[in-house]
Amino acid sequence: IGDIPRSAYIEAEQNVVSELSEIGKPFIVILNSTHTSNPETINLSNKLRDDYDVPVIPISVLDMKEKDIVNILKEALYEFPVLDVKVDIPDWIGCLKPNHPLKKTYIDPIKESVVEVDKLRDVDSINDHFRECESIEKAYVSKVEPSTGEVTITLTAPNNLYDEVLKEVIGTSINSRARPDRKSGSAGMPR
């Protein structure tokens, strides 16, 4: 775009990318082009992505729509660093002994998965570690704080698992969580 050939600003581009990388600032590259689907533009986009290791978005800035701006902001947000990953597990699983097999099915994948997380875009990979585990009903990102680099992952357990573990701990089956008094429908507590 314009009368300036790309070769005239490659050095400036490299300097800016180098400075941003050195100070650890999250960034993306916008490749302004009137021909965003042209093979030459796509090849340049791929080369810049490989060279700078950041997302490159080929777009005609003059023709941008609101959805394009939202996409750009989303991509920039995904580049923020993750400094701390917190994992919320059901309280009753947290109370189990450290060597309990169920607790280990939660803790071991947590240890494996957080090693792979560097940027916010990597957070979804954490959930992949839990998808195959029958003891985990759901794994999801429940909180993201880009300003602090903190992400919270919440893991939930299937309802029947609590009853199974309770039976294992106390040695007998529990058919209900409360035994109502048959006459009044209350829990039979003294008044």
Walk me through what this model shows.
There is one protein chain. The protein has 191 residues and is an alpha/beta fold. The chain has seven helices and five strands, in the order H-E-H-E-H-E-H-H-H-E-E-H. The protein has helices at residues 10-22, 39-52, 66-77, 91-94, 101-114, 124-128, 159-170; strands spanning 29-32, 56-59, 84-88, 138-145, 150-156. A three-stranded mixed sheet has the order 3-5-4. The longest helix is centred in the N-terminal third of the chain and has 14 residues, at 39-52. The termini are far apart. Mean pLDDT is 85; it is low at 186-191.
Radius of gyration: 26 Å
Unreliable runs: 186-191
Write the H/E string, N to C.
Answer: HEHEHEHHHEEH
Q: Which oligomerization state do the chains in this entry correspond to?
A: single chain
Number of extended strands: 5
Major beta sheet summary = 3 strands, mixed
What is the helical fraction, as a range of percent? 25-40%
End-to-end Cα distance, whole Å, is: 82 Å
Overall shape: elongated
Quick tags:
3-stranded mixed sheet; alpha/beta; 191 residues; two-stranded parallel ribbon; disordered C terminus
How would you summarize the topology of this molecule?
Layout: H1 10-22, E1 29-32, H2 39-52, E2 56-59, H3 66-77, E3 84-88, H4 91-94, H5 101-114, H6 124-128, E4 138-145, E5 150-156, H7 159-170
Parallel strand pairs: 1-2, 3-5
Antiparallel strand pairs: 4-5
Summarize the structure.
By secondary structure, the chain is an alpha/beta fold.
